[in-house]
Design brief:
This protein is α+β, with helices and mostly antiparallel strands and 170 residues long. It has helices spanning 13-20, 23-29, 146-165, and strands at residues 2-9, 38-41, 45-47, 55-62, 68-80, 84-91, 108-117, 120-128, 134-137, 142-145. Strand 4 (55-62) and strand 5 (68-80) form a beta hairpin.
Length: 170
């Protein structure tokens, strides 16, 4: 289980919550980029604002055959406006185990709780069922337990870019 708390000075929890569920803003506030982030609604296609049942697709790229791949796919399971986002979450590194026999189809569950603080907002992230088998990510050269890499990448791909995007000096 990965548990992280992050403070966002001068930003309301509602602002961060709304940006997280907006395809363009989600890409702008993370390291994925707006051109490679979307919410996909079955039967409709890409939508601007994610809702229950929609799939966040982020860190998209074209593979060697020119087919678009999504490094992250996360389906929204539950929302409490301005306060809570629950997603079923899985990314490509799940498939990069150094021992392929350990690879699991089980997706993780991500819970983001948004709280008002005296100085802005706090996001508590609880990420459960992230496998602990060793993976190797060739693009970054990382070899470590998947849950360690995922925990580190939350800081690098979400928290740090989000604080910069929102102008937080913390």
């Amino acid at each position: 289980m990965i548990i992280q708390n992050n403070q966002f000075i001068g930003v309301s929890p509602e602002t961060i919550y709304q940006a997280y569920l907006n395809s363009t803003e989600h890409g702008k506030m993370t390291s994925s980029g707006p051109e490679s982030t979307s919410f996909y609604r079955p039967g409709v296609g890409n939508v601007t604002i994610g809702d229950i049942g929609d799939e966040l697709r982020a860190w998209s790229f074209k593979d060697e055959k020119g087919v678009v791949q999504h490094n992250l796919r996360a389906t929204i399971l539950y929302l409490v406006p301005g306060k809570l986002i629950v997603q079923r979450w899985k990314n490509i590194p799940w498939t990069l185990a150094t021992n392929p026999a350990l690879i699991t189809d089980l997706e993780s569950t991500l819970v983001l709780t948004f709280k008002k603080t005296a100085f802005g907002a706090e996001i508590q992230m609880v990420h459960v069922n992230v496998p602990d088998y060793e993976v190797h990510i060739a693009q970054t050269g990382e070899t470590a337990p998947l849950n360690t890499i995922v925990g580190t990448h939350w800081g690098l791909q979400y928290w740090e870019p989000m604080k910069k995007y929102f102008g937080c000096n913390n």
